Amino acid sequence: MLTGYAQYGLIGQARMVFESIPERNVVSWNAMISGFVKNGDLKNAREFFDRMPKRNVTSWNSMITGYCHCGMMREAHELFDHMEKRNYVSWMVMISGHVEMYEYLEAWDVFLMMIRHGVKPEQSIFVVTLSAVTGLNNLELVESLRTVAIKTGYEENVVVGTALLNAFTRNGCLDCAFEFFETMPERNEYTWSAIVAALYQCERLEEAKDIFLRIPVKNATSWAAMIAGFVQNGHSREALKLFSELHRSGMIPSHSEWDVVSWTAIISAYEQAEQGDIAFELFCKMLDRGVKPNQSAITSLLSACRCMGVTTLGEQIHALAHKVGLNACLFVSNALISMYFKCGSLDGFPIFQEMSDRDIVPWNAVLAGCGQNGLGMEGIEIFRQMQAAGTLPNAISFLGVLCACSHADLVDRGWEYFHSMHQDYGIMPLVHHYTCMVSLFGRAGRLSSAEKLIENLPVQPDIVIWEALLGACRIHHNIKLGQKIAERLLQMGARRSSTYVLLCNIYACQGMWKEVLELRETMKDKGISKEPGISWIQIKNKLHYFLMGDQSHSEITEIHSKLKELYICIRKAGYVPDTSFALHDVEEEQKQDELLYHSEKLALAYAILRTPNGAPIHIMKNLQVCADCHSFMKFASKTTHCKIIVRDVNRFHHFKDSSCSCGKISNSF
């Protein structure tokens, strides 16, 4: 009865029974000490220990265990040193106690003392001591332990062997690990997983694949680990290719055998391979089979929503996260904030405000969201709140607030933040921060300031920063500077189509058609083609994609009819097609016809056809919105009485009542 009370933490009842025993033996005393230790009451445990008329090794071990669990290693050592007789548990408790306190050298010293006392280490001692030498990052000590294992016959023990394998890999000697692995007489699933994971981490993917194929019994966990290894190393497409090969060969278990880790691995692979639609299909299958999603599955799906710009699906995942109790998880909250802002929704704000515990990540997510959505003053206020909360900004924080200033044309404020990075926080600006400042100066027409900033860059300027200035030259029709920058970009070996398109736009705007044709010939000779503009929208959980002049959609006739109807309506409202950036020397009417069938306009027409009157319309585009489409959307938002949200490669444009959140007239784009 006494032992039962003590084991279940009923220490009060245990003490009453103990006090009622007329003649107490060592078992009774040990039961009480063990009970106090389990309750964390070391004071009473030590009092009983000191009162014991006679102690055995269990008495000493119980007390030492209590001290070790509480991190009181000095007290534990005092008792350990006074023990007349120690058993295997005594040594194990002391070594593991030091390991738990990250005192790896002390743990190694205890192990050596044990060897000097002639005590033969057993399996668990080897495993915990290998943890210590791994923490010390000392390959020589790993080799020493292997020698001891050989002498004691434990090298062939599969548990000890796997621990040795892990120690080799974590000490940076993959070749030693691989050689040892090949000599192991017995391997379990953890052994196979350890060597495969090590090969992944060193990006030796083909070797990892070969080892995986040698695993005698492959289960859902093993192939999921393999897929995850490829994905974590940025090889999601290779992961999917391998998954398909395994599936065709019958090596992948049926869906009924998959656990949440298996489902999450393949969902993450499709998400990172930018195949979010398939990731969603798999996620739905997982739910149909009654598998409860974990936070990794939820964040993967939210990332897919963010990339595709589909708010509705994101809202559904948000509701599911709330249902399964994951909405308050820090990683999920951060993913939700990022998803909403990158889908053009401001619903990320209330999630951020409700977070009780914020690290730098949610602050940065909100700052980035403010920048992307043109909320300059809001971004500045969030940055101020972050400072007031005692959270030190990092390089990403400053990138967010600089983007907010750039999209809101707050030049002087942005310049202050840029200087504050190094002066107040000791953060050296990176090329991304300089690019933000160049964009900020460029949008404000201060091209000479932008050029001077690039020329004085402490690091080698990249193609992106020069393109930012080239884009500003296009906006402000500065042909001379634009040509100078374009020549520099071509000397740098720029092969991005955007460089050539920007320069073409500058020439076309000035009617320099000879130069446009010459530049096109250069592109053709170099095998550089203009990236096609693609726009997409979500209608009833299905994505619809459009290309310029697209004829492939099943409802294209109705779409064209609606677009022409809308065109007539906004022309009456004052819209004038902006053909200044048309890249063909053709008649004005033909230029207008070509502009009418830009991908975002086709997407808008279809959205008007298939969404309720007055409902917000979300359009995503892979390139920058042209000046004419920008003007078109402004007038369309007025005549259709609905909000139009367009995400292009740079930012979100929130069109409402003939105005845009970017605050710019159309030809300043």
UniProtKB/TrEMBL annotation:
Keywords: Repeat. PPR repeats lie at residues 25-55, 56-90, 219-253, 259-293, 359-393, 496-530. Residues 574-664 form the DYW domain. Pfam families: DYW_deaminase, E_motif, PPR, PPR_2. The keyword Signal does not apply. GO terms for biological process: RNA modification. It comes from the Eukaryota. GO terms for molecular function: RNA binding; zinc ion binding. PROSITE patterns: PPR. Belongs to the PPR family. PCMP-H subfamily. This is Pentatricopeptide repeat. It comes from Quillaja saponaria (Soap bark tree).
